[in-house]
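Journal club prep, notes for RB
We'll compare a predicted complex against what the paper describes. Inputs for the adenosine-5'-diphosphate case:
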Amino acid sequence: MTHDKGLVVVLSGFSGAGKGTIMKHLLEAHPGDYNLSISATTRGIRPGEENGREYFFKTREEFDSMIANNELLEYATFNGNSYGTPRAYVEELINNKKDVLLEIEINGALQVKEMFPDALLLFTTPPSALELKNRLVGRGTETEEVINQRLAISCKESQGMGKYDYLIINDNLDKAVDQVHNIIQSEHYRTSRNTISIAQVQEELKMFERSN
Ligand code: ADP
Ligand code: 5GP
């Protein structure tokens, strides 16, 4: 079957929910199936991160010039830093009928939905608020102050969860990864995403059409 085009899949979720971990495992479990967009950000690099792998780390001036040159598909501010999706990579993939994954926060997700109304919006959460805090603390990449700021942002973000198409509870990691994969794969078979195959079968069946 020829699907009409590649899917734009957005995965959002509270800071510490496990978005990055889910994406990493999804890409490893299904090599070649998915392409992850790497965002640009002005936030500082964390220990263990690499420029060009987790993010393209930019100065404020560099980020602003990306905006001015229309190089970002969407961008938003999160806890004082800017984050944005480079446009060229996403456009190239969808033009080549490839799925592209965006791991972005809610304001960016809603901008993407406006631009691509058939984008698939997934939201992930840990099973409880306490578990969210434990994961953020356990990750050990932020100060207590930043952790508290991020938890307060989560409270606000939770008001927008209903705008997403699917909710993934990231309790057991392998299950969450399977759920994301299964949802994306099922989504390919929606009739509205297969108008080319539908038209083709309709056309072929005309040879059996009777005039009476
Ligand atoms: P995010 O990208 O959403 O901010 P991370 O992927 O960095 O979150 O995950 C936050 C922390 O939670 C990491 O230390 C990660 O190893 C851990 N984690 C992710 N998923 C699970 C899970 N299902 N169970 C337990 N810990 C998890
Ligand atoms: P972190 O600093 O934890 O890596 O990311 C903070 C938040 O920014 C997360 O919710 C993450 O999904 C979001 N984010 C990362 N890249 C982008 C992006 O390109 N655009 C938007 N809008 N949000 C992003």
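Talking point for the session: The first strand starts at residue 8 and ends at 13.
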